Amino acid sequence: MKFIDESVITVTAGNGGKGCVSFRREKYIPRGGPDGGDGGDGGNVIVHTTVRRRTLYRFRHQRMFNAKNGGYGQGRQKTGKKGEDLVIEVPPGTVITNAETGELVCDCVTDGQNHILARGGIGGRGNARFKTSTNRAPRHAQPGTPGESFHLKLELKLLADIGIVGFPNAGKSTLLSRISSAKPKIADYPFTTLSPILGVVDTGHGEPFVVADIPGLIEGAHAGAGLGIRFLKHVERTGVLLHLVDAASIDPENPLAVYHMINRELEGFSEMLAEKPQIVALNKTDLPDAADNAKLFEAAAKDLETYRISAATGDGIEAVMNALEAKMRKQKDHDA
């Protein structure tokens, strides 16, 4: 299934039902008076956050969502049936905004969370409501009011504890496949990963945590180069970043060039991203010249928390996972 992370839909609540014009007609009661009932209220459109949904895929094919109209009022002062609510399910991490104004409508974070997107119209009053001392036989009733209608933009921002960022082909997918049961596509060319992929990591001590393989960033990503903006927004909600660097491709003349470039893209998109705690993993240390390049990187970045790993062989991965877990726990305690 293709990962769909944004969509624009139209939601329309149900109209209120029309009030009824009716008069009581029973044997021996020739002038029973008005008894028209009110119309029923229209149904609401409600968004429901559930972990049963993992993508916005369904909104690729269905863009119009309409709740039921309220029923008409009836004689004998019977109120029309309320229109049935329409419930739309979205995965946690979905942000809903007004597509026309950009105003935030709902931030769907918690499983089981509900929010009314469009309220149903109010049912019209029947003629029984208009009886007065001077008008004992009113012959009019109200129409129901229309339900609300909005064009909404849905964006799914992945909810993960740790986000793996780095240059295309740095080995992010290989690493995720080794530390979790996720099975991302792996090949030796840029942009193999075209969608963020989640993996659950269990180190054996403590609660498992979620890691997101964020597709490779390139220079200019924050301004939309490549698929930059689409990918960067998924990093916003991660607590800790694992900055993966291809040690075999480090420039000996400027060892920190790629590292600084990725951080500039994060900062260009959001200062909050640039301030997230990071751990640097120098990957592919099993390849020729990688060890020497790693030494140059470490010498130039003395203040960085750096680890040498090989996602292909598994060397050094346990140490970096333990470090990530510790930093993640510390960050969560700080946020609490």
Task: Characterize the structure shown.
- This protein has a six-stranded mixed beta sheet with strand order 10-11-9-12-13-14. It has a five-stranded mixed beta sheet with strand order 3-1-8-5-6, with no helix packed on it.
- It has six helices and 14 strands.
- The radius of gyration is 29 Å and the shape is rod-shaped.
- The protein is an alpha/beta fold.
- It has helices at residues 172-179, 228-232, 257-269, 271-274, 290-300, 317-335, and strands spanning 6-12, 45-49, 64-66, 86-90, 94-98, 104-108, 114-118, 149-156, 162-166, 197-201, 209-213, 240-246, 278-283, 306-308.
- It has two domains: 1-156, GTP1/OBG domain (Spo0b-associated Gtp-binding Protein, Chain: A, Distorted Sandwich); 162-335, 3-Layer(aba) Sandwich (Rossmann fold).
Describe the global form. rod-shaped
The helix count comes to: 6
Q: Uncertain segments of ≥5 residues (pLDDT<50)?
A: 183-194, 218-229
Helix and strand content put the structural class at alpha/beta
CATH class of the largest domain: Alpha Beta
How many beta-strand runs? Answer: 14
- Taken in chain order, the helices and strands follow as EEEEEEEEEHEEHEHHEHEH
- Placed side by side, the strands forming the largest sheet appear as 10-11-9-12-13-14
- Note the beta-strand portion: 15-25%
- Report the major sheet: 6 strands, mixed
What helical percentage do the residues reach?
10-25%
Classified in CATH, the superfamily of the largest domain is P-loop containing nucleotide triphosphate hydrolases
- CATH fold field value of the largest domain: Rossmann fold
* N- and C-termini, Cα separation: 36 Å
